[in-house]
Amino acid sequence: MSIIRNVVFIISHHKTRILNQALSVVKFLEKNKIKIFMLPEDCKYLKRPDMVLNSINSKIDLILVLGGDGTFLRAVSLFGQSGIPFFGINCGNVGFLNEVEFSNFILTMRDILKGKYKISNRMMLKAVIKKDNVTIYGLNEIALIRSSSFRTINIQCFVNKKETGKFKADGIIVATPTGSTAYSLSASGPIVDPEMKMMIINPICPHTLAIRPFIVSDSSKINLRWTGHDTQAILSSDGQNSFLVSENVDVLIQKALKPLRLIVTLEYDFFHQLGKKLKWIGYNHD
What we know:
Elements: E1 6-11, H1 17-31, E2 35-37, H2 40-46, E3 62-67, H3 69-79, E4 86-90, E5 100-101, H4 105-113, E6 118-122, E7 125-129, E8 134-138, E9 141-146, E10 153-159, E11 162-169, E12 171-175, H5 183-186, E13 198-204, E14 214-217, E15 222-226, E16 233-237, E17 241-245, E18 250-255, E19 260-264, H6 270-277
Parallel strand pairs: 1-2, 1-3, 3-4, 4-5
Antiparallel strand pairs: 6-19, 7-8, 7-18, 9-12, 9-16, 10-11, 10-15, 12-13, 13-14, 15-18, 16-17
């Protein structure tokens, strides 16, 4: 495992208590002679202008995130294709992407600095709209959804250039295995091991009982085409980036070139973590 000397530290600004937690993390890292870089707004929040990140480069060894899944996904939207490992400290509610709670941060980081960790490679998605010159990436999902209108939209779906169906729905989600516990789960999609090689295609509130989520290979190329009118549709990735989509424009979705390299502890087990997060275990249901 590579030695960690330079860290990009990204934090949430939504909770007052996180300020003190972030200062504790900075103190720990500086004590261990770790060079810290931060986004300009994070530097301002912590009053540390000396830490501002000017550009991402090969000298960065770790992206460290303090917050909930939303903060983690914001970091992914910025640096997800950099190839730099990510590690998350959970200060949110569920925190599927942030394995370790803040109370265990110091013990865990000591192990990570000693090289005692594993890398979990998490598939990412790439969506391209050539006509609009739009390219976005997603760790959890890419979704084509209706805009503010209360009307459903018509979406044609093609897998490897073969039409799969035309769906009248609120939208359609293409999710990664990691994203199976995110938006797709809320739309009754399956939960799968995050290191599986596949994608979930999941229509949102389809206007027929015959339509169900289905799974395709990670090598598949998926085309989504919004064919409706008098409505608006939005292309969104991980709830971070969104674009209005032109009518009858193909959205090409496929596996991104690079996976997200996620640091996990040596004890990490996805299904045990899942049971704790969803309160299947360690919770008295009586």
